[in-house]
């Protein structure tokens, strides 16, 4: 009898805990802290997450976004898998991640991340002015973060890549000329350099060359957190329907300076493939993705 009673109590507790952790009743959603005082990416994605949750709340209490720890990409993915200190993470997608986690497959910046302009040391500008082809770019070494999908994407096309485990150290490597260029999403480099100008006055954003591959940032949750993933997904879809995702991009410090997209023309384009992307990714669907033609003036 005592054993039966204990079993019933344990079952009740388990059911209660499961219900308490569901997004309908959860008071908090755990996210990482900003990587540094300069991390405006964090503001972009956390404010977007909050808007998506609010948009699709449908009477539910919108949970508070609670930051836990500073996490580089590798650790954040491990924590997301454990499900203890992270509920949602935003990261560049690839097929492996989409198999291991629950991907909300809506580009959070309409694929801007795949349109790459370079951060250069000022001493390298003359050399990069001569680049006209992928073969010429292969002679130089790029800096990228450890565990970033871009590393394998670029290496697949024969590009040399030096990895750095800590994001902020990449700027130091560029100043020390341990690598030749730092490819950043077209929306990222300008703001990053403005924030760090006094620290790294030798660095600049190079606008004469665009490296492009299909790539984007998704929100990810644990595979077992389907209810939260659906809530976020519904919110983002509703934001797209109402034009609020594009409006978010046009208002946020991280992205607003790229609009209108055709305000600067780039003479040289180098396009490479992304073999890591899930084959059913709808990169040609303009509901979700910017197209190369969006960046090119019709004049």
How would you briefly describe this protein structure?
The protein is 36% helix and 20% strand. It has helices spanning 2-20, 40-55, 73-82, 95-100, 125-128, 134-137, 149-156, 167-175, 189-195, 226-241, 244-251, and strands at residues 28-33, 64-70, 89-92, 102-104, 115-121, 141-145, 160-164, 181-185, 203-212, 217-221, 268-271.
Describe the structure.
This protein is an alpha/beta fold and 299 residues long. It is built from eleven helices and eleven strands. Strands 8-5-9-11 form a four-stranded mixed β-sheet.
Mind telling me the CATH superfamily name of the domain at 29-111 and 216-242? Periplasmic binding protein-like II
Strand order of the largest sheet: 8-5-9-11
Mean pLDDT: 90
CATH class term of the domain at 29-111 and 216-242 = Alpha Beta
| Strand runs, count | 11
The SS-based structural class is alpha/beta
The number of helical runs is 11
Strand content: 15-25%
Low-confidence stretches: 1-21
Stated plainly, the CATH topology of the domain at 29-111 and 216-242 is called D-Maltodextrin-Binding Protein, domain 2
H/E element sequence: HEHEHEHEEHHEHEHEHEEHHE
Q: What's the structural blueprint in terms of helices and strands?
A:
Layout: H1 2-20, E1 28-33, H2 40-55, E2 64-70, H3 73-82, E3 89-92, H4 95-100, E4 102-104, E5 115-121, H5 125-128, H6 134-137, E6 141-145, H7 149-156, E7 160-164, H8 167-175, E8 181-185, H9 189-195, E9 203-212, E10 217-221, H10 226-241, H11 244-251, E11 268-271
Parallel strand pairs: 1-2, 6-7, 9-11
Antiparallel strand pairs: 3-10, 4-10, 5-8, 5-9
Helix pairs in contact: 2-10
